[in-house]
Amino acid sequence: MKFKRIVFSLLFIVFSFIGVNAININSSINLKTEMAKQEYIDFAEAIIQSVELSANVSVIDSVNEFINIESNKIKGESYVLLNESSRLNRELKTSNISKNENVVIKRYTTKDFSIEFYDNGIFSVEVYPTQISLLASGTVFGSATKEYFSAAGVNIFTISVSSTFSYNGTKASYYSGFDAYYTRGFLSIWQVSNWVSGKEAVGYSYSAYAKGNFHFGLEVNGVGIVIQDFYIKHTVTCSKDGVISRSYVQN
Which residues of 44-79 are buried (b: 16+ CB within 10 A; e: fewer)? Predict the structure, then answer.
């Protein structure tokens, strides 16, 4: 009996040690994740300040100049933690697809452009297009374009969809010039799958869209491992009265 008590006591000590260390490891990860989030917020605020101070430079050039400076980038570990935290948060919201998008943690908007910082360490820049009414009566051109960057310092890709629509006050329809494309940034290792583009009537309006799964990863012994995955959809819509609107989905 004494021997059994000694064994049970040793097992209790061992499992207690394992449990305490598991708690300590989780606490350490949580602390590092919170620190990564704060680092990312500081990064976002620094970019915004840089853009504000570069009034004579285009916003895209200003952002590229900022992320090309090594000391401005967030640490690789922080970027990984941001992506993992975002992935876990999205998994908790899968019951409602409308809530399953990446959270915008910071947004900066002017009359000419907007910058959105998503919780997975990716941010986008949209330069607002000028609505162009064409020579042909009742036609208008519209586009939905964004350039995407990682806080680790990479211009990763640009996505665009555009079209010329016709409208008559009763309904809108396709006119001509539909175009949809994506381009990878310099040094970007991101790939795309399930790329789809098209156009369709939506009630009395008409839309053109482009969407795909953007991702990067590694291949180990012939097996692909996805490190980060980002579904994106761009839509440009013309109303029956010729008003152009743009919408975006990122998750």
Answer: beebbebbeeeeeeebbebbbebbeeeeebbeeebb
171-234-49 Cα angle (round to 5) = 125
Find the range with the poorest average confidence among 22-31, 36-45, 153-162, 237-246.
22-31
**Residue in 174, 87, 182 with CA at minimum distance from that of residue 138:** 174
Q: What is the pLDDT of residue 87?
A: 82
Rounded Cα distance between 228 and 119, Å, is 13
In the chain, domain spans: 34-250
Say yes or no to pLDDT of 238 above 90. yes
